[in-house]
Design a protein that fits this description.
12 helices; 2 domains; mainly alpha; Proton glutamate symport protein; disordered C terminus
Length: 251
């Protein structure tokens, strides 16, 4: 069965598990976390040899520079186009209008991440220990080191062939590992969907007002009543609309 079909089935099963057994859905999040960890663990061992071999096999260092320049230009153009499309769609659809921001305070912004520190970015690009960079998942440092190794291999020529053969073997092995990780992608989807639906269900059934804490229960016991008649406010009323509608559809 194709991975795409398995993932779609996993979405449906995850939604059922999260809705019918929220506690089990919360526990299944570990499947998604394991999948993400496996994806992250194969990135550096796969990217490093590919970059080194790609540069070492080029005809000249000048060609490497031209390709790097084209790659940077392509990245800048695509990023700019994506940003323009995102802003244009946001303006066209009016997303965010009517959001309840009256109670927001500028003090909350102080806890946000200030952004990228250029000094730290440069230091990450030049790690003092490449093994520590690999261990910490410092992708930028590993890429810069791979560029240096590739240029050095291209400079020494045939003497680098034994090391190139080792890197080719590493890349082939990592491609195989990536295939194994992709096969368990439906389990990761199942875990995350189950957890997300379970958390939304629990949040939906939590009392949102101390005077109307039993709103959802009343909605279930009295399917003919409306949330407004029961005095259920805000987001709790949204949940009861779903509950009442489901119960009425069973009549």
């Amino acid at each position: 069965m194709p991975i795409g079909v398995q993932s779609i089935i996993a979405v449906g099963l995850g939604a059922l598990i999260g809705s019918l057994a929220p506690s089990a859905g919360e526990q299944l999040k570990i499947l998604g976390d394991i999948f993400l960890n496996l994806v992250q663990v194969v990135v550096l061992p796969l990217v490093f040899p590919l970059i080194v071999l790609g540069i070492a096999r080029m005809e000249s260092v000048k060609k490497v520079g031209r390709i790097a320049g084209k790659a940077i230009l392509y990245f800048e153009i695509v990023t700019t186009v994506i940003l323009l499309l995102a802003v244009g769609l946001a303006k066209f659809t009016g997303i965010g209008k009517g959001a309840p921001v009256q109670g927001a305070s500028s003090e909350d912004l102080k806890s946000l991440d200030p952004g990228v520190d250029f000094h730290e970015l440069v230091l990450h690009a030049a790690p003092k220990n490449i093994f520590a960079a690999f261990g910490e998942g410092n992708l930028l440092g590993a890429i810069v080191f791979a560029l240096l190794v590739g240029v050095a291999m291209a400079a020494i020529g045939e003497k680098s062939e034994p090391f190139a053969s080792v890197l080719e073997s590493v890349a082939a092995v990592m491609f195989k590992v990536v295939g194994y990780v992709i096969r368990i992608a439906p389990l990761g989807v199942l875990g995350f969907i189950s957890y997300d639906v379970a958390m939304r269900s629990v949040h939906c059934l939590e009392p949102h007002d101390p005077h109307h804490g039993e709103g959802p229960v009343i909605g279930i016991c009295h399917p003919e009543a409306t949330p407004d008649e029961l005095g259920i406010p805000g987001r709790a009323a949204d949940c009861d609309h779903i509950i009442v509608s489901c119960l009425r559809s069973l009549d």
